[in-house]
């Protein structure tokens, strides 16, 4: 492979360093866009149809019309993966409302812009998957669903997540736990949270104001297939501190243990057996299922 990277710009493959995006892209001007992060493992694009479906649901919610139907976008994603030759990689799909100055969408000329790339991405070093993350509860709250529905993976919403992540960084933590406005456990800045208590798996309900993660859904499915009971109660930090095990899930982070929250060790401060079991099940599942890109 030459190492030349290609990106897809409104359906056309172009060399990454030659890709030019419009100066008045509404995504750039106002955060008026959507995105999906998707992984390819072993040449198989994991949960491709679920990610494409979520992208189109988000677009529907924001009344952004993609120029192509889901099936065509799915093919463009696969073509971008192939063009870059990554059998293991990270796909980013970004859609913006289009190009035009002024917040009024009436000013937008032409169609929505669709940008797709495929790169290598390791969010955390391998030892963090062995030792577990330190997490800090941050003061940045989740936006409440009456403002921006968190199921909409909208680019502009992520300023809140970025501020939350910066807060976690400042306290030396690997991730930040975000609470809802009422103070209930929500999610981390780019991951969902799971607790293990008394052999059962607990995760906040999607309706509390979090992203319904595709990794979250996968872990729930794998746990249930292994005979583990899963419930979705409303929880507070008390539940997190007193859990036997905690882990986070997300496309970028995958399944990663969390062993310390706000100065409290979780269990014995080491990744626990159910976390390890589900990490192994997830690894196997991602290696063996997905849409072939090559
Ligand atoms: N919550 C939030 C707020 C997220 O942004 C998840 C949960 C997990 O969802 P999935 O469907 O991925 O299991 C996310 C996803 C990044 C990055 O650049 C972040 C995500 C996805 C891809 C890339 O850090 N977050």
Can you walk through the features of this model?
Strand 3 and strand 4 form a beta hairpin. The radius of gyration is 19 Å and the shape is globular. The chain has two domains: 115 residues, Aminotransferase class 4, branched-chain amino acid transferase, N-terminal domain (D-amino Acid Aminotransferase, Chain A, domain 1, 2-Layer Sandwich), CATH 3.30.470; 163 residues, D-amino Acid Aminotransferase, subunit A, domain 2 (D-amino Acid Aminotransferase, Chain A, domain 2, Alpha-Beta Barrel). With 294 residues, it is α+β, with helices and mostly antiparallel strands. Strands 7, 8, 9, 10, 11, 12, 13, 14 and 15 form a nine-stranded mixed β-sheet that branches. A seven-stranded antiparallel β-sheet has the order 2-1-6-5-3-4-16. 30% of the residues lie in helices and 26% in strands. The longest helix is centred in the last third of the chain and has 16 residues. The structure holds 3-[O-phosphonopyridoxyl]--amino-benzoic acid (PXG). The site of 3-[O-phosphonopyridoxyl]--amino-benzoic acid (PXG) has 15 residues, from helix 6 and strand 13. 3-[O-phosphonopyridoxyl]--amino-benzoic acid binds next to helix 6 and strand 13.
Total tally of structural domains? 2
The gross shape turns out to be globular
- H/E series: EEHEEHHEEHEHEEEEHEHEEEHE
User: How many beta strands in the DSSP annotation?
Assistant: 16
Ions, cofactors and other ligands present here are: 3-[O-phosphonopyridoxyl]--amino-benzoic acid
**Unreliable residue stretches:** none
Instruction: Report the CATH C-level class of the largest domain.
Output: Alpha Beta
- Largest sheet report: 9 strands, mixed
């Amino acid at each position: 492979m030459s190492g030349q990277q290609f990106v897809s710009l409104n359906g056309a493959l172009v060399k990454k360093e030659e890709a030019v995006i419009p100066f008045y892209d509404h995504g750039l001007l106002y955060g008026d866009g959507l995105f999906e992060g998707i992984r390819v493992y072993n040449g198989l694009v994991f949960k491709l149809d679920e990610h494409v479906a979520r992208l189109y649901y988000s677009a529907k919610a924001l009344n952004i019309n993609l120029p192509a139907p889901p099936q065509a976008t799915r093919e463009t994603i696969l073509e971008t993966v192939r063009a870059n030759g990554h059998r293991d990689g990270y796909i980013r799909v970004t859609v913006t409302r289009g190009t035009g100055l002024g917040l009024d969408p009436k000013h937008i000329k032409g169609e929505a812009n669709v940008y797709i790339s495929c790169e290598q991405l390791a969010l955390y070093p391998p030892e963090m998957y062995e030792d577990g993350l330190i997490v800090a509860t941050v003061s940045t709250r989740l936006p409440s669903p009456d403002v921006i529905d968190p199921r909409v993976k909208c680019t502009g919403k992520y300023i809140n997540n970025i501020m939350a992540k910066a807060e976690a960084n400042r306290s030396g933590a690997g991730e930040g736990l975000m609470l809802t406005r009422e103070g209930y456990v929500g999610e981390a800045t780019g991951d969902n949270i799971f607790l293990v208590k008394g052999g059962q798996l607990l995760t906040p309900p999607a309706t509390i104001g979090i992203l319904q993660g595709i990794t979250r859904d996968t872990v729930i499915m794998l746990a249930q297939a292994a005979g583990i009971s899963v419930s979705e109660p409303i929880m507070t930090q008390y539940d997190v501190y007193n859990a036997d095990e905690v882990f986070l899930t997300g496309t970028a982070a995958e399944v990663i243990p969390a062993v310390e929250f706000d100065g409290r060790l979780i269990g014995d401060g080491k990744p626990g057996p159910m976390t390890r079991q589900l990490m192994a099940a997830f690894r196997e599942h991602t290696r063996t299922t997905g849409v072939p890109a090559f």
